[in-house]
Amino acid sequence: MSGAWTFVCAGAELLPGEMKSVFDETTGTPILVLNLDGELYALEDVCSHEDFELSAGIFEPADGTIECVLHGAKFDVRDGRALCAPAYEPVAKFPVKREDDGSVWTRDDRE
């Protein structure tokens, strides 16, 4: 079980339209944090179609999606749901918090 939060970055380092990947040392999970119009979202940094990092893909803030460069699967960054083939399963979504000092944190909260 997880519980420890993972530091992502200072808030000023993750501007709208940008993304940053981190590694949750507690669970061994790669996590991708995306800034969509000032709202922060965190997804597992692994395409559900094939084991490939989403952080290598294309983040489209205009439609709130990220596309895996390997086979073109797209996911909604707000909830992780798969939007087109070849992916049919969602990617895991994780909590994100912003501290008073502006720092950004996330964690793999799966049991």
TrEMBL record:
<dbReference type="InterPro" id="IPR036922">
    <property type="entry name" value="Rieske_2Fe-2S_sf"/>
</dbReference>
<feature type="domain" description="Rieske">
    <location>
        <begin position="6"/>
        <end position="105"/>
    </location>
</feature>
<keyword id="KW-0408">Iron</keyword>
<dbReference type="GO" id="GO:0046872">
    <property type="term" value="F:metal ion binding"/>
</dbReference>
<dbReference type="Pfam" id="PF00355">
    <property type="entry name" value="Rieske"/>
</dbReference>
<keyword id="KW-0411">Iron-sulfur</keyword>
<dbReference type="InterPro" id="IPR017941">
    <property type="entry name" value="Rieske_2Fe-2S"/>
</dbReference>
<dbReference type="GO" id="GO:0051537">
    <property type="term" value="F:2 iron, 2 sulfur cluster binding"/>
</dbReference>
<keyword id="KW-0001">2Fe-2S</keyword>
<protein>
    <submittedName>
        <fullName>Non-heme iron oxygenase ferredoxin subunit</fullName>
    </submittedName>
</protein>
<keyword id="KW-0479">Metal-binding</keyword>
